[in-house]
Amino acid sequence: MVGLTHASPTLEVTLAPKRRARRFSPGHEAWRRFLRHRLAAVSAVILLLLALAILIGPFIWRVPINDIDFTARLSGPSWQHPFGTDDLGQDLLARMLYGGRISLAVGFAAMSVGLVAGTIIGSIAGMSRGVVDAALMWFTDMFLSLPQLPLLLLLIYLFRDSLKSLLGPQGGIFILIVLVIGGFRWMTVARLVRAQFLSLREKEFVEAARALGASNLRLVVRHILPNALGPVIVAGTIDVAAAIIAESTLSFLGLGFPPDTPTWGRLLYDAKDYLDIAPHWALFAGGAIFLAVIAINFIGDGLRDAFDPRKVM
Amino acid sequence: MGNYLLRRLVIALPSLLAISVIIFVLLALAPGDPFSELATNSNVPPAVAEALRQKFGLDDPVPIRYLHWLVAMLHGDWGFSFASRIDVSRLVLQRVPTTLYVIGSSQLLALAVALPVGVYAAMRPYSMFDQVANTIAFIGFSLPTFFTGLLFILVFSVNLHWLPFVYRTDIHATGWHLYWENFKQAIMPVAVLGLFQGASYTRYVRSAVLDVIRLEYVTTARAKGLDERKVIIKHVVRNALIPVVTLVALRMPTVFGGAIVTEQIFRVPGIGSLLIDAILANDTPVIMAVTFVFACLVILFNLLADIIYGWLDPRITYA
Predict the structure, then answer these.
(1) Residues B48 and B197 placed together within one structural domain of the fold
(2) What is the pLDDT of residues B209-261, one digit of tens each?
(3) For the domain that residue B218 is a member of, what is the CATH number?
């Protein structure tokens, strides 16, 4: 192993200078840098409000999502229906609050799937040398060059019906979409984790932990992974936005959730035939997707600044 | 040059094979097969159904079926479309040029926007122009293509009546009028896709130029008394483009995904809308073929990126 011989020089370095006027913990420091990115801070508030609206909204706005009222068909925003109604006279605000839960849930769940898969694959590649590393990286690169949307569509086309009969129409589609979207979003994370591992595994603190007899698993989980998390969190944040777009795209193409599940993409799909008479329908649904995605993207940008001090000027 | 190309092709072949395996295994794993309807149809005796299954080799092990399928694909026998009643290869080849036309023009538009804006923003980092461009770029790639497409239709077709929102191949016109109509109906799909890509390319170009512009050889070029324009175009941009080409190549799968959406919104008769139609019609042979063609196109564009890469960076030799 590299560096096993020099044990003493590292000792002196650990004596930290004592003259420090104000001490910030690393977390506090990152938080401060995040807040300095003003758009990111604003976006965090917007996303929080959006999440609150989706979580609490249905308890306050108690209009049922499938209450059909043909007298109020395709009407624009009014006091009775703040976001207007659709072609069956169903209240759009209620539908969007309900659909937002699913859209955001898919985004976060798919991100978690991608993050976990990417971290595992990246860690294995980063810790092992030679054939395993090369094979895993070839696998990652191949996934990066796959045409994702066609394969997403293919997978959903092939497995939709069997999962539907297994887990019910909504649950089955939810799991399928989350797995499939997450399954195409782990590659960046895997590459980032591997790159971090390659440098971290040679560091002295890892060497020290190994000298103390730590197992490989403990080295990875307790020592290397926590230090590699910064870029992974940034990538994960941006993946949430990408997953929300992916789910909306599928729903927009009519191949996502079933018609009675009003995700934002599905609302947009239904609205596109009424653009000329009821533009509010498409604008509210698309606006919600846009707002969520841009807020998450800005937060990701702010987190990048927060975790990577060199990039900030 | 020929040698280099050949080597890149040899590297690309395993990926293509792997993709074909993935597609085939997916199909094999999926529940149900083309003959499942025969089993439930009471007019077909079980013996006939069994004979048909044997004739088409549906009970063979998966690897052997894969080999049969691969050989057939290589021979250009891509199957028969259930829905359109013509050969899949003819159907797909009819539609590939439209897709390539839309994607190609949108990439040109994206680069035409991203290069000047990105370079100019990087020349004046943190200036007003830079910040405005950065924010607009952020908005640009946070707006999903399906939403911009609808917005464009709402503004330019429904409200202003400037552009048609359905792409037509049966325009009854000749000469310049035909070209004009064709140009007009391509504006919105190309713009939707191009601006979406352009937004992210702008950020790539800006950060790549920022990395290069502070290097010492640029100072040297300026110290020699070279014109600033010449310094930027010949010295800075050429080197900054190298990472940009890589990133553009990496985004190719996203570009094709966006093409599917735009084709679907504007009813452009390309392979993207063909894929959606085939999925909605359960037309399995077409779905397989189009997915595979998409994979081939992605790899083709990666190959193209490699060639441009070699041209931009003389350290990469073709030999």
Answers:
(1) no
(2) 888 888 888 889 889 888 888 888 888 888 888 888 888 888 888 888 888 88
(3) 1.10.3720.10
Shortest alpha-carbon distance between residue B239 and chain A (Å): 21
Q: Report pLDDT digits (tens) over A232-285.
A: 888 888 889 889 988 898 888 888 787 778 888 888 888 888 877 778 878 888
Q: Report ipTM (2 d.p.).
A: 0.80
Place of tokens 């506090």: A28
The residue of chain B nearest to residue A268, with distances taken between CA atoms, is B147
Size of interface A-B (CB pairs under 8 A): 129
pTM attached to this predicted model: 0.83
Structural domains in chain B (count): 2
CB contact under 8 A, A162 and B253: no
A275 — contact with chain B (CB < 8 Å)?
A: yes
- Say whether A241 and B142 touch across the interface (CB within 8 A): yes
The tally of CA atoms less than 13 A away on the side-chain side of residue A245 is 27
Q: What ranges in chain B are assigned the alpha helix state H? A: 2-29, 36-40, 46-55, 62-74, 88-123, 128-142, 145-152, 175-213, 216-223, 228-230, 238-250, 252-266, 271-280, 284-312
Nearest CA in chain A to B141: A294
Domain of residue B260 covers: 96-312
Q: From the centroid of its chain, how far is CA B43?
A: 45
B253 and B307, same domain (yes or no)? yes
